[in-house]
Amino acid sequence: MSKQPATAPARQRVAKQRPLHVPVRLGKRSYRVLIGPGLVALTADLIAKYLGPAKCAIVTDANVARHHLQQLETRLQVLGRHSGTAILVPGEATKNFSALSRLCEQLLEMGLERNDIVIALGGGVIGDVTGFAASIVRRGVRVVQLPTTLLAQVDSSVGGKTGINTPQGKNLVGTFHQPSLVLADTATLATLPERQFRAGYAEAAKYGLLGDAAFFAWLEQNWTAVFSRQPDALTKAIAVSVQGKAAIVARDETEAGDRMLLNLGHTFAHALEAFTGFSDRLLHGEAVAIGIALAFQLSADLGFAGPNSAASAIGHLHAVGLPTTIAQIPGGQGPDAGSLVKIMGQDKKVRNGKLSLVLARGIGDAFLTREIAAPTLEAFLSRHIGQPRS
Length: 390
Ligand SMILES: NC(=O)c1ccc[n+]([C@@H]2O[C@H](COP(=O)([O-])OP(=O)(O)OC[C@H]3O[C@@H](n4cnc5c(N)ncnc54)[C@H](O)[C@@H]3O)[C@@H](O)[C@H]2O)c1
Ligand SMILES: [Zn+2]
Hints:
Elements: H1 8-16, E1 20-24, E2 31-36, H2 39-51, E3 56-61, H3 62-78, E4 82-88, H4 97-109, E5 117-122, H5 124-136, E6 142-147, H6 150-156, E7 164-166, E8 169-173, E9 181-185, H7 194-211, H8 213-227, H9 231-251, H10 266-275, H11 284-301, H12 307-319, H13 337-345, E10 357-360, E11 366-369, H14 374-386
Parallel strand pairs: 2-9, 3-4, 3-5, 5-6, 6-9
Antiparallel strand pairs: 1-2, 7-8, 10-11
Bound molecules: nicotinamide-adenine-dinucleotide (NAD) and zinc ion.
């Protein structure tokens, strides 16, 4: 190991461009989200600055490790604060009980103590399973999220939901465990495959569509700069999304009410993902794009929203290359309306047999309803599936 940290150039570069800080206000569990290029290389120093000189274990996946692990590991080693690194198998399948228990044991084998920190370096999969492990190992240790996908930077790294999947469904086992710090390094997105980037963009657009019309208008104007990873545009898109999420999470940490608005498009999306077997056939963000399009179309059909807002929501998702219809799901036979409604009825957002749906009165004006009857939904989906829009 050389004495000179390999990350020095990155650390100098960052010094010129200060990251944006977004606070997440949750009383004693408050934390900050820093957003900007080059933060992975600065992580060890930022942890020391904000959380004190703790020992850190890193959890990542093999894809992320290849591109981004060394700069983080080296600096922690130089400071003498690296307790070990666990490299997990990339992909959704890692969010299961056996990977979780192996990870907990690995962290204990590294000698993790109560005051130590676990760093989750990766996308939403790594963030969710690492957050879960951190919440139960030694009855809970601190976790620092270093999200490396757009989806994780705008959404999953903030808010404290952790979890794994079981044969009964996705994210049905988990905890609320807020991170102590989130560092969204926009430069890591340079290595993210385009399809993953685009899928994550659906979640950013969601924040505009559910509660911030000005942000949505900004995205309509600036999405090409965001997609070309132009640092200022990217930082702004992430920061505004995180502010949107932070405001909602601060009002409703455990999803008793307002936080459900974050599920815009998600009841449809989860049913589509279940139908495609949670596979690469349809990424989560792609399912969310179709789900948002359906939510806006249904809102327009039922007279909650004008046709123009549905057209602009769907038009923008389509313009950036996201799917907006069920017919666009690749790989053969799509679902029929009846089976989709059935799957939606099994969603974890069902309470007392009533399905919650997030609909919209317009751009930036989402609301929660439990009043849409299954036959109405099925008729709407039959119409939609019968009239594919490419
Ligand atoms: N906790 C929450 O609040 C919350 C919210 C939304 C989604 N999620 C969860 O997030 C998960 C999806 O997250 P995701 O879309 O980030 O998927 P992911 O973590 O599987 O990452 C997608 C792919 O990109 C690779 N990758 C990640 N960063 C990279 C980089 N910088 N360069 C190159 N490759 C990189 C990964 O190895 C993986 O193959 C789902 O399991 C979902 O349930 C959780
Ligand atoms: Zn989502």
